[in-house]
Specification:
single chain; alpha/beta; Nucl-diP-sugar_transferase; three-stranded mixed beta sheet
């Protein structure tokens, strides 16, 4: 269940409830709001999301657990100069992580899913990772159904400049704005702008149903157990997109500007002489420790390792990466 939406925007959100399209809220099909979502206090999540959306025109949504908190702190340090934190809505797996984020980053809105079993490091292609993606699909589905434009992103990413102007400029070109996976004919699920068109709502609703259907396959698996590729969210969503489900239209961002983890594997001269990316996703590598090690190597880790606390920004690192020659 969601709990304790603790943000100074809550007061504003409650005042905005009268402005929210009550007809839309009352007609959300409840049979899609299973397990953790079904016990949400009426309108609280919707109120927070609507408040952000009405003010900014988009809600930046991401999901973390306790093991991912260092990535969250590093990303918030990285992006603090952009002034976008009030647009961010973070779903956490546990209340302690929610409280940590609220204390350190008070501009950010947070929601706790209260699923402590998913609070540790979850590795790609493991059952725990799939369980997290099911919760992500459900939560985003709820936001889309009330007409919120969702920008889905992940914290294991460096933003060399603010990507929002470019991403939002693409929204007229498709129901979804996306990046491709490693240049292949496949769509990444960790960096998506989801316009709440009827096509997107229908597509994501069907995607959520399919994700929920695979939960039965995970019932006897521990979080560290490996799963088959066919039940990964990226594979399931791409199959729907590829077949044109609900008449969905996807606009793809340029790969050279929205790079993935393959960028780190390029020769130094290629990285230096090629176009400067807007963002670089730290993927195509498994395990939090390896991700952090690589980010540090390339100057893409923004926490001060010499500080007594583990959430202090390395201002010099941030300045260096945001400069033209960073």
């Amino acid at each position: 269940m969601f709990s304790g939406i603790t943000n100074n925007q809550e007061t504003i959100a409650r005042k905005n409830l009268k402005r929210i399209a009550q007809n839309n809220l009352e007609n959300i099909p409840q049979n899609n709001l299973k397990n953790n979502i079904k016990n949400v206090p009426q309108n609280s999540l919707e109120a927070i999301a609507q408040s952000i959306f009405q003010k900014h025109g988009v809600v930046l949504v991401t999901f973390i657990n306790r093991a991912y908190l260092p990535f969250a702190h590093s990303w918030f340090c990285n992006t603090q100069p952009f002034g976008i934190h009030s647009k961010v809505l973070v779903f956490t797996t546990d209340a302690a992580s929610q409280e940590t984020l609220q204390r350190r980053w008070p501009e950010v809105s947070t929601v706790s899913l209260n699923i402590s079993s998913l609070s540790e490091d979850q590795t790609y292609r493991k059952a725990g990772y799939v369980r997290v993606t099911v919760e992500r699909a459900r939560s985003v589905n709820r936001l889309l159904k009330i007409g919120v434009r969702v920008f889905l992103f992940e914290f294991d990413c460096v933003w060399l400049s603010n990507p929002l102007p470019t991403v939002l400029a693409f929204q007229r070109k498709g129901d979804i704005v996306a990046t491709k996976v490693g240049g292949r004919d496949a769509m990444a699920t960790g960096f998506l702008l989801l316009n709440p068109t009827s096509s997107t709502v229908n597509l994501w609703g069907r995607f959520t149903e399919k994700m929920e259907d695979i939960m039965s396959e995970l019932s006897d698996l521990d979080n560290d157990d490996k799963v088959k590729n066919t039940i990964l969210d990226q594979v399931i969503l791409w199959r729907l997109v590829r077949t044109g489900f609900a008449g969905i239209r996807v606009a793809y961002l340029p790969a050279e500007a929205f790079a993935d983890g393959e960028w780190y594997k390029q020769p130094r001269h290629v990285r230096r002489e090629g176009p400067r990316p807007i963002i670089i996703n730290n993927n195509f590598i498994k395990g939090n420790a390896k991700k952090i090690k690589r980010a540090r190597k390339f100057g893409h880790w923004f926490l001060d390792t010499d500080a007594a606390a583990d959430d202090v920004c390395d201002v010099d690192a941030v300045d260096a990466v945001l400069s033209d020659d960073g």
